[in-house]
Amino acid sequence: MGIAPRNPRKKAFAAGLWKATALAAPLAVAAAAPAAYAQDSGEALFQQRCAQCHTIGKGRLVGPDLKGITSQRSADWLHRFISHPQQVAQSGDAGAKSLLAEYKIPMPDQDISSGQIDAILHYVASAGGAPVGSAASNAQSPANVNNPAPAAPTFSARAADAGARLFTGETRFANGAVACIACHSVSDPAVPFGGGRLAVDLTGIFGQLGAGGINAMLSSPAFPPMIAAYGNHPLTSAEIADLTAFLQRASAQSSAATPSNRSSEILLGGGAVGLVLFLFLLNLVWRERKTEHTKRDIHARQISTF
């Protein structure tokens, strides 16, 4: 007895269902992929570009806490500010100027594409629970959002002294990084001549950034000069802790008394004393100079013989 042939209609229906499933599955994956990719790439970009100076809901660091920023500012403003923050501030934008006035340290320009900025903003919005670009034109600036810095930890005097030696270069960094004093100055008895003038004075930096901000800046430098100096010579966690302790001490001393960074006065005073000594020695030498021609006596004797 032979096997009855299959129903041609059922066979065609099964074949059509299989083809539809085979086509729909890749389309569904493709539709879900962009959102997942944007989320992943946005988080990676945030960690690479932003996390050194900003948090999302964990308080301020070098810059403001970004929680809710996408609902406080329009997407267009955020794009312009992230790409060229100093240019926006120089244009007279009130929000950018207030940020610079509060946080003191200007944000460097970011060499990233518009798509990457979108990815970062979507990540910030999803992490902070706010939609992107829902702000009114007069939205509150993040500088005015009440995100206080966490309480400062207490460091030992021994750690502060160790940090001072690292700052001045008396103790070398483990990975060969350049000493902070090459570019920065600070008012502290351990730094009698203040320090360098190539970058900002760090006397009150602890009061501005706190321990978390300093740790973020030193562990993952975001500014081009610091990247060049420390990118291949990272600081150890112990070195960062000692430098933080030193900067905390300097900040506390500056708030308790008028800052006493007198390097300029010392140099000017030393120059003035040196000039006086030079003129005094020059006068002594000048008084011993010959005031008459060396052959005048010979000439006088010759004349007297006539």
UniProtKB/TrEMBL annotation:
The alphabetized UniProt keywords are:
Electron transport, Heme, Iron, Membrane, Metal-binding, Transmembrane, Transmembrane helix, Transport
Spell out the Pfam families in the cross-references.
Cytochrom_C (PF00034)
- All residue ranges annotated as the Cytochrome c domain in the record: 37-128, 158-251
- SUPFAM superfamilies recorded: Cytochrome c
What are this entry's molecular-function GO terms? electron transfer activity; heme binding; metal ion binding
Q: List the Gene3D superfamilies hit by this protein, alphabetically.
A: Cytochrome c-like domain (1.10.760.10)
Q: For this UniProt entry, which segments traverse the membrane?
A: 266-286
Q: Which InterPro entries match?
A: Cyt_c-like_dom, Cyt_c-like_dom_sf, Cytochrome_c550/c551-like
Is the keyword Metal-binding assigned to this protein? Answer: yes
Protein's name in the database: Cytochrome c
